Batch of 2 targets.
Target 1
Amino acid sequence: MTSRRNFLTSAGAITGAVAAASVSKVAMAAVPEPVIQTRPDTMAPLTPNTGRPYNPVVTLNGWTLPWRMNNGVKEFHLVAEPVVREMAPGFKAHLWGYNGQSPGPTIEVVEGDRVRIFVTNKLPEHTSIHWHGQRLPNGMDGVAGLTQPAIPSGKTFVYEFEARRPGTFMYHPHADEMVQMAMGMMGFWITHPKDRHPLIDPVDRDFVFLLNAYDIDPGAYTPKIMTMLDFNLWTFNSRIFPGIDSMNVRKDDKVRIRFGNLTMTNHPIHLHGHEFIVTGTDGGPTSKSTRWHEVTTDVAVGQMRQIEFLADEEGDWAFHCHKSHHTMNAMGHDVPTMIGVDHRGIAKQITDVVPDYMVMGERGMADMTEMEMPLPDNTIPMMAGEGPFGSVEMGGMFTVVKVRADQQPGDYGNPGWFKHPQGTVAYEFTGQLPAAARAADAGQNSMPRQAKRTQDVQVKVRKPSAGHAGH
Ligand SMILES: [Cu+2]
């Protein structure tokens, strides 16, 4: 097993070394050595030094799997295995994934490449891999029982096909997939165009990640795999804010972000400060006549979207799922609405008896960030993340696109918080406030009240008692 750290020092060195003439075909092992990566950091792009050239992508809190060339065939080795994924600093989950991580490594190939993928199953049960979105022989499609026998525990299977269509794809099991995807088994696949493509523009930065969700009780380590809708951890690439790296770009970069949804619900993904176009799906590049500007694009289950924009506004721009429950971290469910109830003293007493007891604050949930409720081990607060102006009060599917004039080409490092030009930050008004002008007489409204109505009814809006279910 080779450490990713070693080969990153000279990106692609493994592929180069193995493909070099000094290694004879006889000496070449039948199966490429698997590369394992156990850190959750965003790794530098893997620049190819064999095969056709392309502009590599950057996987958010992830990495790209190196390959070797064997008689013109690109060979990869995926190992399906239990992994420990740090979902945010201080919070680890026991998942299943590939080559040390969940999601597995990104696979990058070029249109027309002949690809051979060895899949070793180190899970306690059988598995398979389906190559979502690919044109390939039916027997390589990876549906256990339908197109192949499942890969038994301890065995290695080989998939081989030509990457016929350029685009944005993913891979995941098609064997006991409810369990295996709930446990984190999935990965990204990019097929780069072999030449200049009329519908695929070159970009300066190309980010990829998968949307996935888990149900892990506070204090626990392993996802509950029977959960269908009521997940409590909403993740980009099995990371939750504030554990998700920012996407750091140079001002006026053309930026592409690709994401695929392997959760059980849709996610409207929203970018601040810029408008983008959807340039592709897992069906390939979109035709130009179908492109219009958006700031939010909804990704249904099993879909992928690639968006593109010109990063021409400097700043720290939020990028997140627009479902507000999906920018929250693990909470106990059935949390009662406590707005208007001062229970802070009581809550402290209750936690002496019930350690996992969590309630929302009397003025809303923002109170929770100051309530200093004791949390069980291996649990992250519901909303966390300190920004330059205080608590960001976000969790889950949230990160930041950092646009900087002085970010160097090829530098993906975090430039720190944006330094706002003087006079460009919202500020407190300290003058005299005028009295509110309220409509005094209903008769002057454009929609007069019904004359017959004798009594006003007041309603209080509250969440159903089932609380968090069904979103
Ligand atoms: Cu969402």
Target 2
Amino acid sequence: MWGAGMREPAPQHWVRWGPVIIVLHWATLLCVVALLVTGWQLGAHAAHIGRRTEILQLHASLGVLLLAATAVRILARLTGRRPTAPAGSRLRGIAAFVVQAFLYLSLLALIATGIAAAAPRPFTPPIQLFGLWPLPKIVGALPTMVRNMPGIHAALVWILLGLVGFHVAAAIYGTLIARERTIFRMLVWPKHR
Ligand code: HEM
């Protein structure tokens, strides 16, 4: 029993990620779903410049928001608490780490190629983030690179989806088959799992 003024010692084994990581994990999922929907809508409205520009403003704004969230998340991941690794297979632990590292890399690559693909072209209005700030140009000086960016950006989407597939399959396997409470490590409840 811990009395008034006494501090409870830090637990030896964290059972879940810290709250910042958990909130940003699920916020990233929502943001990526919204980016997929708006990204594919861009193709559907390719012939209507006005509508396409509106959707692109939203798509780019969400993408830059995701960049900020990913930067905070990587920082929190490097500096914050991490749950104790399950006692299961070491190989599975390494595979999970590699897939997670590539998930972060593919998100960053998607954002970078997206910003490059959104560079203003003749007859298209410049993109304003949240209707307020102009989208910074990152490769404005390299027109040939910009020309290839939409294709690279679209290919990266499928790489991201493949990695997400592995990630979700591993979470299901870890939770239901290996019974390592994998999914509970990324949930703020229930309290005592
Ligand atoms: C994780 C982040 C992102 C995801 C998942 C994503 C997803 C997508 C998808 C699904 C498409 C349609 C691809 C296709 O034609 O098959 C697309 C297109 C596009 N995205 Fe993104 N996007 C992301 C980030 C960004 C960012 C940050 C920007 C700009 C700031 C951006 C700008 C664009 C542009 C300009 C296109 C149209 C390319 C073209 O065909 O001309 N994207 N995106």
